[in-house]
Specification:
The termini are far apart. This protein has two domains: 1-39, no CATH class; 54-179, 3-Layer(aba) Sandwich (Endonuclease, Chain A). The radius of gyration is 20 Å and the shape is globular. It is α+β, with helices and mostly antiparallel strands and 180 residues long. Helix content is 52%, strand content 9%. Bound molecules: zinc ion.
Length: 180
């Protein structure tokens, strides 16, 4: 989107020259990491239609938080139990939220909305058809990634964000033990 003309405007800002030099330099770890993080779970969200009412808007605002919190709680609990793992492992399809690389176990904590949980899946009323296609595509992609992981010899475990942290940790723990 930023073109030569908009760059021209940016240069007037003074500090924008720093931005420019960073942008042209090879991407550092920070930049790549940020890109990866924002990419996660939100791919092609740039296609998101403008919400037509407040309820959808507030629903969208809630999503990132409701999604990340259970994931962090699970990580903390696994850590507390002495398990060590990689987080948002970038070398695998879908960047598993939790990856036990030696055991080849990938764990995903799936948001109820984005991954269409059978208990809590909802469909926004506005732009309903767009959302239906988008969410179904999400689920389809989940299964594709599962297949890709499976082909690479990885075990895949999906946890719903609504699941109790301790019960989820028990599931992971049991799988870890069985794979050792
Ligand atoms: Zn759910």
């Amino acid at each position: 989107m930023p073109t030569t003309s908009s760059d021209g405007i940016r240069h007037d800002g003074g500090c924008r020259s720093i931005w420019c030099s960073q942008a042209s330099a090879p991407k550092g770890r920070g930049g790549a990491g940020r890109m990866g993080a924002s990419d996660k779970g939100m791919s092609d969200m740039n296609l998101r239609p403008i919400p037509l009412n407040d309820s959808v808007s507030s629903q969208m605002q809630r999503m990132p938080r409701t999604r990340t919190k259970p994931e962090m709680q699970l990580r903390r609990e696994l850590h507390r139990r002495g398990m060590r793992f990689r987080v948002n492992y970038p070398k695998l399809p879908g960047r598993p939220d939790i990856a036990f690389t030696k055991l080849r176990l990938a764990v995903f904590v799936d948001g109820c909305f984005w991954h269409m949980c059978p208990l809590h899946s909802t469909m926004p009323r506005n732009n309903a058809e767009w959302w239906r296609i988008k969410l179904l595509r999400n689920v389809e992609r989940d299964r594709e990634k599962d297949d890709q992981l499976s082909v690479r010899g990885w075990h895949v475990l999906h946890i719903w964000e609504h699941e109790d942290t301790h019960e989820a940790a028990d599931k992971v723990s049991a799988l870890v033990s069985s794979l050792r």
